[in-house]
Design brief:
This protein is an all-alpha fold. Helix content is 52%, strand content 0%. The two termini are 28 Å apart.
Length: 317
Amino acid sequence: MGFTTPKAPEFDVDHWSQRPYAERLHMMCVTWATQGFGAPVAAYLFYVVKLVAYVGGFVAFAATTPGLGGLEAIGDWWALPVVFGKAVLWTLLWESLGLGCGSGPLTGRYLPPVAGALHWLRPGTTRMPPWRWVPFTGGDRRSVVDVALYAAFVVLVIRALLASNLTVGVVAPIIVVFAVLGLRDKTVFLSGRPEHYLLATAILLFATGGAGIDDTGAGTDQFWAGQKVVMVALWLGAATSKLNHHFPGVVAVMLSNNPLVGHRPASATGSTAASPTTCARHGRQRRWPTAPRWWSTRSRWCCCSAAVGSPPRWPWW
């Protein structure tokens, strides 16, 4: 495994490609269990850069808020409500740009590693309205209206990030435009994690009786109480939703992406073969369409190991 070259399986790829489908799937299952995802070093470096950009972007917007005193005074303003509000808005923007947890090579996105904003700013791309009976939302192609709504949302969030006071006049347009955009295309709406960050943004409307939050942090009891209710409810719901039969398979795939989790080479077991029980421990075998390349099959196995029920019959596969 090199800097940009993925770790190849220990079996001969040419021999593998000539085997029956069930045997190919069996060999890939064993390879995934013993070698892991096999991502190159550059794949993990991408996420290091992304984390630095996320934290750096937030600090930059917070430090440039008028009245806070800049980065030198971070010890005085880091816990102010206006800074928390900007953290929420920055995260909402970050997710809505496609830079969130579903981006990069470990999620099957290679070139480009981030495609959210590139897709949503281009007319003619696919969109998915949540309810086709809603007036003026029909169709499955992105129009200039959809692009304009998305661009307006991005501009409004950046405007709020640069503002000194998160008033109703600054925050409310973000919520309205994002809601209208969601009626036109649910993919954009869901990408922003609205159950987290749009709810937290809505709490900003109730800070100081609707007057907004500023650099003083005065009169923000309702703000903090509302944010606590949102966060506790969300994380309790998120935690209990994991108490099911399929989430252990999700964890197994997540661990296989972890660069700090070691994997035992298949040769260490004395054979590249494995019993059906071994395969079952690392994901359920399913009937998926034939893949022309081992890397494509490995990526698909990442998806199917976390799936529940019958696999979808997607036409592009």
